[in-house]
Structure formats: structure tokens, C-alpha cells
Amino acid sequence: KVAIKGIERELICPACKELFTHPLILPCQHNVCHKCVKEILFAFEDSFADGGSESSNQSSPRIRISASSMDRIDRINRSGIKRNSLTPRSTLFPCPGCQRDIDLGERGINGLFRNFTLETIVERYRQAARAAIAIMCDFCKPPPQESTKSCLDCSASYCNECFKIHHPWGTVKAQHEYVGPTTNFRPKILMCPEHEMERVNMYCEICRRPVCHLCKLGGGHANHRVTTMSTAYKTLKEKLSKDIEYLISKESQVKAHITQLDLLLKETECNSERAKQEASHSFEKLYHVLEEKKSAALRAIETSKNIRLEKLQTQVEEYQGLLENNGLVGYAQEVLKETDPSCFVQTAKQLHVRIQKATESLKSFRPAAETTFEDFVVDTAKQEDILSDLSFHSNGLEIPEINEEQSRMYNKALISWECPGKTDSADLYVLEYHKLNKEEESVTWQKTEVCGKSKVLSDLDDDSSYAFRVRGYKGSICSPWSREVILRTPPAPVFSFLFDDKCGYNNEHLQLNPRRTSVESRAGFSLLLGSERLQVGCYTTLDYIIGDTGIAKGKHFWAFRVEAYSYLVKVGVVPSNKIQKLFHNTHDVTSPRYEQDSGHDSGSEDAFFDSSQPCTLVTLGMKKFFIPATPAAPKDPASRILPLPSCLGICLDCDRGRVGFYDAGRMKCLYECEVDCSGIMYPAFALMGGAAVHLEEAVTAKYREYHDDI
Fold first, then answer.
1. Dist CA 449 CA 387 (whole Å)
2. Is residue 464 part of a domain?
3. B30.2/SPRY domain: from which residue to which, for each copy (predicted)?
4. Predicted local distance difference test score (pLDDT) of residue 518
5. In this structure, are strands 178-179 and 149-151 parallel, antiparallel, or unpaired?
6. At CA 401, angle to CA 400 and CA 405, rounded to 5?
7. Is the residue at 60 inside a domain?
8. Does 443 lie in the same domain as 408?
9. Is residue 378 part of a domain?
């Protein structure tokens, strides 16, 4: 038998750090106490209500919300964008075991299974730990007697006498199942948490959880591969038994490894002490050099001070001699009392020279020494930078390089890096960044430690450039800094929306993906049939689609990608009062297929088109970006055609009435114009022929990684 007291580490809740109480199984297969799950969700909701402030996370000392979860709360609160009631809601739960945000689905806690097996093991552990503590009968009159058995059907404990009274022979209760004294009462039949009246009788191999027949018929597991519960039980039990038997058969090998690890522990202790002594010796050398420099600097300052004081003191004494009846003046006054001309002339000649010098010094007074010690200021800025960078450098660690193609600057900044040799020799990475500001003379780097090769940052300012650099650490050894990379944030807060599949959506010509983040226009029979009825080649049909969320005020930015094979795509904004006109006016006269030599003046055609269109759009297609023909635009048509960026962005400023079109990869404005923002503005897209548009996904921290793993 396995020693119960030796498995305590497996029975501790990762949230409260105590033995599990009614543990629930999360979708990530970690277990958390039912009470802890509720406390974490309450704290999560309070953080949403308080705008993600740190003060809202201090009510429960047992529970802490991860930094990634707080970042997401702050982003959602800042956006202030609400979807309609038809959008399905999900419950995010920050798992304390894997530090990821898990989607519990619409049912939340009610959709989680209770881990009765773990609960039984915890109860056995508790009984082994408190063998001397008896479980008392629940029905005895005071004083209660020690119980001898527990009824699983009644969920109560009884002594022998009370059990006979409440379970009389020949009654239905006499058939109840009973076990030894326990406080852990588990149901005989495991019921489905989604369909509470149905028992689980199948096992979903995709989600790795028990399900009922309703889940398979029309629930969330309809298209999943399932097996019978008995088959899953037999298969999993055989696998687990074989794995356990294998581990037990390798007991001698495990003990040998433990002995080797014990030796490594002692060796690590010895080597660490030796490394400490060497490091201390190195720093003592630095201390010695600094002490010598300090003593020399203080001696120089002291010497200069004494010389200056001596000069100033001498000057003070000289000026004191110019006072009446004192010093030089007093001596001259006594000489004036001499009546013998020859003796007076003999003394007065030298005295007169001294008096003249004193008179000149009064006219041009200047201290004999400077009082400031500006020449003795020690500039240690460079030395401080060197000392702050002091670490155990090693040539064995490769210098990481920031991958600008994989890094993204959107609602958050995703910074990714890799090692040239494609090896992950570092245990930890340190990412530093700072905002580029010409006014600031000194640069202050912000630092964050990362275990992987990417980091999501959410504290960056909009419309700003940042410099990034990264280095790797293996223990106390670090690599040199990578090359600095400069990236720019979007010009405004990111606006989130989906394609609207209700208003004006033409499902015959356009195809949306299930998440409504991509739209595709396919050149098929509908376009050929429509072209057959047309006799003038300049008129072709555009299929419009708008966003499901509007903008009433403020400045917003969104980005999207246009497939390279797209023939014609128009992007921009449309006011709410012109949406109907937009879907009833789907003819385009400025497509790449338009015949330029129509016999009319091109400038007048452009002016007619601009004034007749209900929305502000620019044309994309054939891997090109077409700048609209305006008085400010170049007259040469070739200069108005730019290469199509891999990612495009639109910045709408409702307060100023302007819309800009950006290369979202470099955050560079390609074209900007005025727009009427009197109504609610919606993102607008138009496609013709073979074309596709994909909305840029928001940068999120960690919880998408979980879904990708599943």
C-alpha cells in the first residue's frame, strides 16, 4: 500500500496552500477548492468593477490575481466598448496552478466537475493524520457516542444503536450502503454539470472529461470523438497501472538517482561557497580601488581648501590694516607725526608705495581665491552604468535578437526574440525598454524578467516610439545586450469590433468565418451573371460590409490585413445616417478595371466621384495602395500608387473630423483627409472579385496559449 502521509504535496490546493476541500477540475486539468474558485472569481469581478486597480485585489489575503489577468481587466475597462446581448459571454478564470486565464464557458463554476477521487484520497489522508480523533455519531443525545459506520445514502455517521434505529430491518433504509466512519460523502452516480438530470456515461477524448448523451447529441461535444465510460475506465486504468508498475520496478534506479542527486546537492553547496569567495574577492578589489580614489580625491580637496583659506586670510589681514588706527593706516598716521624732514622722507617713500597699492586694490577688489570647488566634482555616470551592468559574462550564451516581424504593436506590445543558433541556452531573459524623448537628457530603462522568448507589455503610451533590447541569463551568467530595436505604438487606442452579419450583409457574394473576423469575396457565377446583364464595362458591383460597433467620439485606431491576391478592396468609414445609401449605391467607377480613356476630364470625374460617395474610402488591390485624387495629391497618377503594406490601419479622430490610413507595420501615415463625423461612424469595407480582409487580432497575454495547446 502507498503511504498516505508521503503524498501530502499532491493534496495541497495551489490557491489557499491547504488540503483540498471539495476540489473542482478546471479545463486545464488542475484542481482548486470550490471555495477558492468562488473567491478568485469574486476578486476578479471586483477588479473589473474597480477598473483593475490594485486596491481592489487586497480583500482576500489568500487569493492573488495574476499580472496578465490584471492587464486584461485594464484593457477591457479602458476600451469602454460593449457588444450586443447576442454575443456569448464567457467567464475567465486565472488558474493558480498554471498561471493562465482559463475560459470556463457560459456556465462558469456550474460547468466544472467535482473531483470525488481526489476528495476521497484527501479524506484518507486526514484520517491517517488524525487517527486518534474519532468521528462522533450525528444522532446520539449528548454526550454523543463514537460512530462505527457512515451511511453514504443518508450522508451521516452513526453508532451501532443509532444505526439500528434509523435503518430498521425489512425497510428500504436497511438496503442503504454504509462504510467506515468518514466525513466525505460522495454521490453514487456522477451527474452531468451541464444537464443536471443526466448521468455521465461517455468520455470525450478531445476535451478529456466525462459527458452525458445530451452533450454528445446537441451540446458542445456534438462533433467530438467520444467513447463509453467503461472503455475509458478500462483503458485509463490499464495505462495508469502499467505506468505505476514500471515506476515501482525501477525503484533501485530511482534510489540510485536520489543518491546521485544528494551528492550533487553537496557538490553544489561547495561550489557555491567557492564562487561566493571568488566574487567577494573581486568586489574587494573594486572596494580597494574605490577607497584609493576616494582618499586621493578627499586629499586633493583638503589641500586646495587649505591653500584657499590661507590666501583669503592673508587678504583679510591686509584689508584690516587699512582701517583707521590699525595696521598700515595706523602706521602711516604715526609717520605723519615725524617733524624731521630727512627722517620723514626716508620712511615715507616706501610707505607711500604701499599706500598706493592699497588704494588701487580698493578700486578693483577681487578675492584672492575662489570659493567654489567645481573643478573637484567627480563624474561617475559612466562608471555607474558599467557597474550596473556588472555581471558574470560568458561567451557560452548566445546574444538574442529581437524579431521585428513577429513583434507587434497594437492594443498591447508583443515583443518576440530568438537566438541565432535556435537553441535556448538561457534560463531567463531580461527585456528593457524606454520611450524615445528628445527633451530628456538621461535615459531610464524599464526592466522586466521573462521566462520565455516573448513578452506582452501593456503600459506603453499611444503614438510614441520605444527602444527595446534583451539579454539572456543562465544562473548568474548573462549574455551581452541585443541590438536595440525601435518600434512605434498606434496613434490612438485600439478599437475592437467584428464584421456585422446583419446590416446589409450579402451572404451570396461574401463569406464570413465563424468568429466574424475575416470576410472573403469569391469571383463566382453570381459575378459572371451580373456582368452578363451589363453593357458598359465601367460599372461593376461592390459588396459592402461594416463593423458591428460604432464610434461616437474620441480618437480610435484599428488594423487589418488584405490578402495579396485581392483584386479590389475599399476601406474606410461610413456615418450611420448614410449606411442605407451605401448598400443601395454599390456601383464603382474607380476600380483598376475602369477605362481611363473615356473622353472625359479625369479631374472632373474624381471630383464627381468624391462628392457622390456616401462614405470615405480608399482603394486597394493588385498589391497596390491608391491615394485618392485630391487637389493636394500629386498630379502624376503613378506617384499616387504605393506598394500595399502587409498590415493596414485606420485612425479616426471624431473630435477633429479627420481619418488617416496607415502602414500598421511601421505606424506610418500614408494618406489623411477630412471626414464628416456628425453621426456615429462605422468601419466600412467593400470587396469585388476575389478578395479577402482579416481583422487584426488583439494582443492577449497567456490565455490564448492554453486554447492553442488544446
1. 20
2. yes
3. 477-704
4. 93
5. antiparallel
6. 145
7. no
8. yes
9. no
Distance between CA 448 and CA 228 in Å, rounded? 49
User: What does the H/E/C string look like for 512-545?
Assistant: ECCCCCEEEECCCHHHHHHHHCCCCCCCEECEEE
What contacts 143, CB < 8 A, 6 or more positions away? Answer: none
User: What are the residue ranges in the chain where pLDDT is below 50?
Assistant: 1-2, 51-62, 64-65, 72-90, 535-539, 587-612, 702-710
The CATH number of the domain where 126 resides is what?
3.30.40.10
CATH code for the domain of 550: 2.60.120.920
pLDDT of residue 654: 92
Separation CA 695–CA 560 (nearest Å):
4
The model's pTM is 0.49
Provide the domain limits for residue 623.
510-586+613-695
Q: What does the pLDDT read at residue 463? A: 92
Task: State the CB neighbour count (10 A cutoff) for residue 650.
Answer: 22
Residue 475 sits in a domain whose CATH number is: 2.60.40.10
Q: What share of the chain is helix, strand, coil (3-state, %, to 5)?
A: 35, 25, 40
Half-sphere exposure of 211 (CA within 13 A, CB side): 22
Q: How many domains does the chain have?
A: 5
> Based on the domain organization, do 526 and 633 belong to the same domain?
yes
Whether residues 291 and 347 share a domain: the answer is yes
What residue type is 670 in one-letter code? L
Q: 341-363 and 327-335 are packed helices; what angle lies between their axes, rounded to 10 degrees?
A: 150
Q: Is there a single domain that holds both residue 549 and residue 670?
A: yes
> 64 is written with which cell numbers?
492573488
Q: Is residue 265 part of a domain?
A: yes
- Phi and psi for 627 in degrees, rounded to 5? -75, 125
Question: According to the model, what pLDDT value does residue 593 have?
Answer: 41
Paired with 560 in beta bridges are: 648, 695
- 495, with CB counted inside 10 A (0-12, 13-18, 19+), is buried
Summarised one tens digit per residue, pLDDT across range 37-69 is 888 877 766 655 554 444 444 444 445 445 555
